[in-house]
Specification:
By secondary structure, this protein is α+β, with helices and mostly antiparallel strands. It has two domains: 131 residues; 38 residues. Helix content is 49%, strand content 15%. The protein has a five-stranded mixed beta sheet. Helix 6 runs antiparallel to helix 7.
Length: 192
Amino acid sequence: MLSHPFTWLGPLVLPRLTLLLNHVVSSEPVASGKLQPHAGRTIDLQWTSTFSPPLPRFLLPADGSQGLLPPSMRFVITPAGLFELVDAGEALATPSDGLTLTIELSDPLTMARQLLTGQRPDVRIEGDAALAEVASWLMNHLRWDIQDDVARLLGNAPAEWLRTVGDAVRQTLQRWRPDPGGDAGHASASRR
């Protein structure tokens, strides 16, 4: 039986996501400063979803689990106010002494719409109140400034051009998205 892609893709992607997370946190000194008092504490990320993809039975996990969800992750806060990814087996073996963030994943189209409109998925926070306040602040205030990173690598002109193209693509996709109010035929009617 073939293993699900997350089982072999996770070990490749998770360290890179940790580097990206640390890059975003380190670009905002206030974020690192808020995390430093919590050095040594853990933050667990778990995923849940009610969405069941229409896949043939042979592609679904044999044990009936939600194997299509990303793997659970545990981060330890470092003294520098950054994150260190803990080995998955070690993370599941010991209880968390910090915080658990459970992220509700919806169907792919809803997640794409949320991404385009800047909305975040629903997140349930459980654990230490002080660390929960810091996690909430991070979710509300940290944003990856892609344009700034591209400008550092390629210069201001290419970064501005990529921002303009990205904005045009986002606006085009937003124009063609289904209307949540039920007026789904509006986009097709305006093209005639």
